[in-house]
Amino acid sequence: MKKKKMGTLFTPPMMISAIILAVILLISIFGTLLAPYDPEAIDLANTYKKFSPDHWFGTDAMGRDMFSRMLCGAHTTILNAVLVVLFADFIGVPLGLMCGYKEGLLDKIVMRIWDILAAFPPLILAMVFVAIFGKGELNAVLATGIVFIPMISRLTRSSVLSEKTKTYVETAKSLGYTERKIIFRHIFPNVVPTLMAEFTLDIGYAIISLASLSYMGLGVQSPKSDWGSILQSGMALLFKSPTVALIPGIAIVITVVALNLLTDSIQMYLDPVQRRLPHIMKYKKREAKHNEKYA
Amino acid sequence: MKNMHDNIVEINNLEVEIISPDGLLKAVRGLSLNVRRGETHGIVGESGCGKSVMVKSIMRLHDESKVAYSGNIFVNNKNIMDLKIRNMRKLRGKEMAMIFQNPMTSLSPIMTVGEQILEVLTAKSNISKDEAKKRSLEILEKVGITPGERRYKQYPFELSGGLLQRVMIAMSMVNNPELLIADEPTTALDVTIQAQILDLMKSVQKSTGVSIIFITHDLGVIAEMCDRVSIMYAGKIVESGNILDIFDHPAHPYTKALFESKPKGSDRAERMLTIPGAPPSLYDDIPGCSFALRCKYACPKCHSTSPKKIELDKEHWASCHFSREFFEKKELLHDE
Amino acid sequence: MGKVLFILKRFITMLFTLLIVSFLLFMVLHLTGPDPLTVIIGQKQNITQEARESLRVQYHLDEPLFVQYGIWFKGAVTGNFGMDYIQKMPVTSLIGGRSAVTIGMVACSLLFSILIAIPLGIISALKKNTGVDYVISTLMLILTSIPGFLVAMIMLVILSKAIPGYRSVGMYTNFGEYMARISAPSLCLSFGNIALIGRITRNAMVEQLNSDYIITCEAKGISKRRLILSHALKNSVIPVFTVSAMLVGTSVGISVLVEQIFSLPGLGSLLTTAVLKDNYPIILALTLLMLIIFQVVNLIADIMYTIIDPRIKI
Q1: ipTM of this model?
Q2: Among B19, B281, B283, whose Cβ lies nearest the Cβ of A278?
Q3: Count of CB pairs separated by less than 8 Å, B with C
């Protein structure tokens, strides 16, 4: 058979982003152990240090080692972002499954509430919830999570609606399976790929949202810090020592770019219309060369 | 001796390769075809045999970053493979036009049908907008869409499939092209509407003398519409000739199989082509005759050598090692 | 008149939403947050009991909560959102004085993003699978991943380094100054929007360019320009519009941060400080105002759809 799949899932951007994410994940798990200094240790003799072998990322206004702060910040940042999405998935996915499968009154009420929540600009909504719960790390996670629920349950619901019309669901129904079994054992596995792609994307959004809240002073409170709050502390020194703000900024961008790139590669691959194919002349040239080599 | 000016379309050894998510599709594989001026030439074949790819190539409608052509296509004695794409655009809609299988999706959903006809006129000639509108209304009435004034302002979603196919015909004929390509124009329509569209096409041809390439998988439609017919299989024409010659003396086992598979039922919609086995994948190279795997007459030679074109009669040829025997209705001598 | 009825219906739904949201928010803020009186008194906690009482009466805090909401609601209907807790100024005038910055910024950034993003999206779609497409797509991917406040920060550093006299603090006095103040922040807001609108434009265009009617257009032999602009693009406009309308909302959100960085006197900084200091009347009024803006923009988008696409009936 000469038939072969064109355009692979494992494109260079995909591989690069996967490697970057793996490294970031490792750092976020073991960051606290790897940190060479206590991230909160104030050392007024060594403030505003430049990059050096002693302090890889320099030190901030209070002489704290930026490298250690970043490593420990990674732990908080990534963990909280994952928590946000897990929390939103934990509530949003079952709700979406139920609403999509049963439709009816429950669906109407829930979707109506989501309509109201979706009418708010997301960041404002998160701020309103923080205003209600009070500022702080856990509350910021909770607030952001709530903002994500409508998005996730709507996505789940619409995937279920399209799955529901397929024959395997009809078959399961005709075999007299219980609703719960049909929903969770039959439909759910089929919507997982869509949800997985959404999961990586949402972690990126969660990182940005949480960082925004921390930046406004509504999220993680000192002495604990995440990339957003390090960024905020750097804002005051923006003109004196821009690296303090830039380092967490760059870290956030790299992480989110990698997450988006990964999601993008998966989605592009899954959609034949959007999938990138080589130009036919290039492809034929490459094939010819390949054939020559093995002729 | 016919001179080549009689041919509106002449395709020599055309090969078309398309890159797709599933691999490199060799949709057309060394195809040759002549269409005479003023005739209706039918192309028959199962779905996926490359019919649509071939006719789209005549207008160079494929995305050229995904498609590689080789061979020549002469339309009106111009080799369109040598033309720049912008010059090709000038020919389309003026010298040649095309109508498609699904009229419901073939028109822009957010533009009135009248505007879509008008657009062809204004793009091709320097006429005033009023004049163009007058001509558009005229042609709408001519293809039986009345009242033209009202229909002109309607959107595609407000018209039925039959009416939309009439709009497509009006749109393609508005500049009096010399060649009209119809890619299964009745497949998506109801049976009763099909007959009306076929009648319309016949009358359009009578009044304008346009040459038509008519693609279908319905032999009944071919018998009704065409002067000549070419049978296509796996990216090649396997037999070509006058309609009567082909129906009376099929010289290729695939053609024979097509006729045999035709159900005896009177309802034309039921006359689908069914031959045991599946056509070969056009992603693969096919050694020997492409039909050999499904052919009940195949011998070892068929699997190894691809057959040459055999001229059987004036304008009737087929490419099978045993065409002559089939043509003369002799029994085959080798073991089946 | 279907259209009038539709708008009326949407308007009523919006009012209903506002009613529910305002009630819930009012209740939740007052029930869960710190006591308003402590916020009102602020630093001067040692004031006399008498003054304390008079403040309590002045802010209707002596009434039951439901009555308080009733009083607030009666005022809100006439455009009076009460006094704020900290500056002791009418909320309406506080918001009025600051809305010009936010609205101008969001509008400018949206206009700017659409003007840049749509051509980029079209080019990317037309050059699908080529180097140009890869460059544009990657650039957009990176732009979507940069938080708005980071862009603002970097831009502020660059601007202050490049233009020594770059003023970034204080009020504006005339239109020229106003534009000068909001242009850089608008640009910051635009980056993310350019990326999102551009990506949507590209994907919609790719999808449209793959559809049957485009082949018909090709077969008709109309010019490439016409094919792209009056067919493919016109059919791609709806998703682009939907996203742009949604982006008004997110832009309002991000403007909160951008305003803070550029120390602009806009609604965003008002909201942030209000949330930080439990200034309920401002939180309440601003939330509702942003809700209204978002809903009105969506309504406008919905009406535009019916103009663009004859298939959509309302």
Answers
A1: 0.84
A2: B19
A3: 82
